[in-house]
Structures are given as C-alpha cells and as structure tokens.
Design goal:
Layout lengths: L1 H17 L12 H6 L2 H21 L4 H10 L2 H27 L7
Helix pairs in contact: 1-4, 3-5
Length: 109
C-alpha cells in the first residue's frame, strides 16, 4: 500500500511539472529595429504584441493543466510564467511606443 501511495505521489508530481504553461517571451526592441523600422512596421509590430497579450490572457484561464499544476506548486509556476510573459510584452510595447514617438509617427501613418 505504501508503495502504491509513493508511485501515485511521484506520478502526480511529474504530471504537475509538465502542466506548467509556457507562453514564450517577446524580445526587447533592438537598436537596429529602432532605427530601421518604419512607422507602418512599428504599428504592425505593436499589433502583434497586442495579439500576444490577448493570447497569454486567454491561455492563462483556468483549465485542466491548471488543476495539475496546482498539485505540484499550488499554481505558482503558472502565475510566475504569465507575469514574466506579460512583463516582457509590455516592455516591448513601451519600446515600440517610444520608437514611434522618436520618429514622429502619427495615427494615420
């Protein structure tokens, strides 16, 4: 009986580790991008970042992986992953806005 409980605990821990969601990251705007991107390209890139933020928000909703990850780390891994992904995307968005301002881009460009 103890062996069965041990196997169940190890299996639950393994599944919980696999259940942590991974969103990837948005990279910082490079100096080359800042200088070479046109206003239109900056707008397109901002649209991509907004799409990524929407994807992260949608994927972070409660589902089966959330239940499994809760068993391993009380859901902290998913929260940390979402926060890091959102922080990276918001930082890129701020950099894109700064590049737009530096190039004097308007809403119609």
């Amino acid at each position: 009986m103890k062996k069965l409980i041990l196997i169940a605990a190890v299996t639950a821990a393994a599944l919980a580790g696999c259940a942590t969601k991974n969103y990837g990251r948005q990279g910082e705007l490079t100096e080359f991008e800042k200088t070479s991107m046109t206003c239109r390209e900056l707008d397109l890139e901002m649209a991509k970042v907004h799409g990524y933020l929407g994807h992260v928000d949608k994927e972070s909703q409660f589902d089966g992986r959330s239940v499994l990850s809760f068993l391993g780390d009380f859901g902290m891994g998913n929260i940390m992953e979402k926060n890091a992904a959102m922080e990276a995307a918001n930082k890129r968005l701020a950099q894109l806005n700064a590049a737009r301002a530096a190039k004097n881009c308007t809403a119609s460009q």
